[in-house]
Design goal:
By secondary structure, this protein is an alpha/beta fold. It has twelve helices and 13 strands. A hairpin with a 2-residue loop joins strand 6 and strand 7. It starts with 14 loop residues before the first helix and ends with a helix. The model has no long low-confidence stretch (mean pLDDT 97). Bound molecules: pyridoxal-5'-phosphate (PLP).
Length: 370
């Protein structure tokens, strides 16, 4: 008998999401065309406890606007971790600036604050930090370095909705932050994102930028003051997102349950480490991940092949972005260049069953016994 497919990621969609999406499709037009967008925005604002939220059509678009708002341009450098999805980096290139890839820490897989310090130059215009797979960056240290040099910090919290750093939500600490609501994320709108802003001044600048350069303070119709962007979230997407945010505690709790189940089975193996949770923090465990110790003669492709044969959709850990074709290799980032080849992501979708988690673990345990 063929075993059912275990997916890598898949959203949790209930009658509530269907009800709101149907309502938006039937009624969310004309004068009501922003209703769910505003509800979604306000729910996110209160969940994160932040002053300003701009819903967007993607996290990539949100980051593009965040960098534009602080006037990143050619000749500027932006510091970014080498381990992340390329979406944290592409907007730097869109604006003609140079990404400076910085190594990550062995334990958190997040950017190394001391490597940030060592990479700051007169050209550094911003620091992007990424809470990878739900893990948390050392925000106190990062914010203190950034303050010393007066450089804005943008948190890429695409993968960390629900994680808490010393009691503060990931995405509520940097000068600006971005989230993704792509279909693989803990909360989804299909495609979607959000830009979080702490300062009123930047928020007002962004309201012009996000509306094709139209200034909301100028009543002249279809009048643009500058070249802006069009990364707006649709009311239909926001309807699904509103239902998801009304369920956020449940969605995050389920992610934690899934991870803890993986950890119960695999955590006792000394050859494996998994997403860390530092005392005082909460990891929302977007994506359970296993890293094999350097002492293991680990063959990532062989394990992924075993997974595929068991009809399991496991995935590779992020490649160092600097290793990819558009950039120059930076093997000096020794942690990044070692980590990626020793790790895989585990299927972590909300509806995964205990029996399916067991199946995934069995493949790993059998691999270790070989
Ligand atoms: C760390 C990180 N940043 C940015 C993004 C981009 O998100 P989006 O696909 O919504 O643009 C992702 C999405 O996968 C991500 O994982």
């Amino acid at each position: 008998m063929e075993l059912s497919r275990i997916h890598y990621a898949k959203p949790s969609i209930t009658d509530l999401e269907v009800k709101y999406a149907s309502d938006a499709a039937a009624n969310g037009w004309g004068p009501n065309c922003y209703d769910y967008i505003y509800r979604f925005r306000d729910l996110l604002k209160s969940y994160l406890d932040v002053p300003y939220v701009i819903p967007t059509s993607s996290c990539t678009g949100a980051l593009h606007m965040a960098l534009a708002a602080i006037d990143v341009g050619p000749k500027d450098e932006v510091i970014v971790p080498d381990i992340t999805w390329i979406a944290s980096v592409s907007p730097i290139s869109y604006l003609g600036a140079t990404p400076v890839f910085v190594d990550v820490l062995e334990d958190s897989w997040c950017i190394d604050p001391q490597a940030i310090r060592a990479s700051i130059t007169e050209k550094t215009k911003a620091i992007i930090v990424v809470h990878v797979y739900g893990n948390l960056c050392d925000m106190d240290e990062i914010m203190s370095i950034a303050k010393e040099y007066n450089i804005p910090v943008i948190e890429d919290a695409a993968e960390a909705l629900g994680s808490l750093y010393k009691g503060r939500k990931a995405g509520s600490i940097g000068d600006m932050s971005v989230f993704s609501f792509h279909g693989t994320k803990t909360v989804t709108t299909g495609e979607g994102g959000a830009l979080i802003v702490q300062s009123k001044e930047l928020y007002e600048k962004l309201l012009v930028l996000e509306s094709h350069g139209r200034d909301p303070k100028i009543s002249k119709q279809f009048w643009c003051e500058k070249i802006g962007y069009k990364y707006k979230m649709s009311n239909l997407d926001a309807a699904i997102g509103t239902a998801q945010l009304e369920r956020i505690e449940e969605l995050v709790a389920r992610k934690r349950e899934i991870f803890l189940e993986y950890q119960r089975i695999l955590g006792c193996r000394p050859e494996i480490s998994m997403n860390p949770e530092v005392a005082g923090d909460i990891n929302s465990y977007w994506m359970g991940t296993v890293v094999f110790d350097k002492s293991v003669n680990f063959d990532r492709e062989a394990l992924l092949k075993d997974m595929e044969q068991a009809n399991i959709d496991a995935r590779v850990f992020f490649y160092p972005v600097s290793m990819m074709t558009p950039f120059e290799d930076k093997p000096q980032n020794t942690v990044s260049y070692s980590l990626f080849s020793r790790a895989i992501n585990l299927p972590s979708y909300h509806d995964i069953s205990s029996a399916e988690i067991r199946r995934v673990c069995d493949v790993i345990l059998q691999y270790l016994e070989r």
